[in-house]
Amino acid sequence: MSTEKIVICAFISYRNTEHCILKCYFTTYFSIVFKRRGGSSGAKFRISLGLPVGAVINCADNTGAKNLYIISVKGIKGRLNRLPAAGVGDMVMATVKKGKPELRKKVHPAVVVRQRKSYRRKDGVFLYFEDNAGVIVNNKGEMKGSAITGPVAKECADLWPRIASNAGSIA
To answer: For a FRET experiment, which of 48, 108, 130, 171 has its CA 20 to 30 Å from that of 154?
Structure first.
C-alpha cells in the first residue's frame, strides 16, 4: 500500500491581461490499494481483449471441465452495442459446456490464463498463445483444481498468486 500526495491546480486567465495565474485549490492525501479484486494482487495493465462474451475456451485445470463458455466479465461496466470482452488475467463468469455432470448447468467464476489474441508487454514484446484457456476459481481467487496444464501468462500469475503457485510453467 502506498500513500501519494495530490495537488489539484487550475490555470486562471484574465481576459485583459496577458499572463496566467496558477492557483492551487486544495491538497489531499489518499492511499492507493492495488488489491482491486478478491485474491488478486499487483497492478493490472492494459491488455488486448481477445475473448468476448460467448467465447468458448479450454479449461486448463484438473477439475473435470473441458470447455468454459464465457457469459460475463467481472469489472466491465459496458457501452451501448459493445460486447464485454476479457483478456489474460481477467475474472469471468462461465459455464461448463463439456465435462463432469456436477459442474455443468452452473455458473462458475474463472480466470483467463491464455489467449490467442496477441498483446503487448511493457518491454515491447508481443505475445500470444496457441489456445484460449481458463481455470475455475472461487470468488476469492483460489483454484478449485490442484494443477494447471500448459503455460500460464506472466500477467495472470502476477495478479493471481494462487494460480501462479499451481502453474507448471509461466510464460
So the answer is: 108
Query: At residue 79, what are phi and psi to the nearest 5 degrees?
Result: -145, 145
CB–CB of 77/68 below 8 Å? no
> Counting beta carbons within 10 angstroms of the beta carbon of residue 30, is it exposed (0 to 12), middle (13 to 18) or buried (19 or more)?
exposed
Per-residue pLDDT of the chain (171 residues; tens, 9 = 90+): 444 444 344 333 344 444 444 344 433 333 333 334 446 667 778 999 999 999 999 999 999 999 999 999 999 999 999 999 999 999 999 999 999 999 999 999 999 999 999 999 999 999 999 999 999 999 999 999 999 999 999 999 999 999 999 999 999
Q: Where are the domains of the chain?
A: 2-32, 51-170
